[in-house]
């Protein structure tokens, strides 16, 4: 495994190191897998669907000569995080250098309409799982690395009908800031990417009717100053940038076409 560049450098050399990506088979997760592999990183892909993870591994390895490990399990379970980090130890590489907390779900309901089960599901995956993986990452006996949390504009501004999702992403932003301070002395950067609408399966899921699903792109574009929704690769490139930068930490980077500035 290649040695990281000296801490005196302002750019972290990631080639030959491992990135762990949760929710790896989703739109942003797959884009992260491909873009981080292009940057020379080996991968640990975590998610619930073993078949999709195997398909993604094959796709990535067709494009790049990197090692790709798979961890299957519920992201909201602490056991899955423990298993993922034990995997990196078992293959003799020592540590995960970059953690991408990407796994997420959305429930389209007002607060009064949100069931106990829906609330718990959103918190388990969007917040609790992110915490378990981040805690396991921090417990590695190492310094110089990065945690990137995939948040949302909904963590900073409200959105009617997305009560649980907004609450979970607001908490993600605060955990990002707290852990950035806690890990700063070890040279570990903790940041979040906060996308607006993305052309990915989540954008189209959970709508009451097919007509609403079909109209979601136009409705979002009408509220975005740049007039278009993001592609998953744009979010992945932002995550890669933050993973490389040593002097950026505790930042919530909006990638939203100007939505939160309007």
Provide the fold topology:
Elements: E1 18-22, H1 27-38, E2 42-47, H2 50-63, E3 68-72, H3 78-90, E4 98-101, H4 116-138, E5 145-150, H5 163-183, E6 188-195, H6 201-204, H7 210-221, H8 232-244, E7 252-255
Descriptive notes:
Helices cover 43% and strands 15% of the residues. It has 262 residues and is an alpha/beta fold. It has one domain (18-254): 3-Layer(aba) Sandwich (Rossmann fold). A seven-stranded parallel beta sheet has the order 3-2-1-4-5-6-7, sandwiched between helices. Helix 5 (163-183) links the parallel strand 5 and strand 6. Helix 3 runs parallel beside helix 4 (116-138). The longest helix has 23 residues, at 116-138. The radius of gyration is 18 Å and the shape is globular. The mean pLDDT is 92.
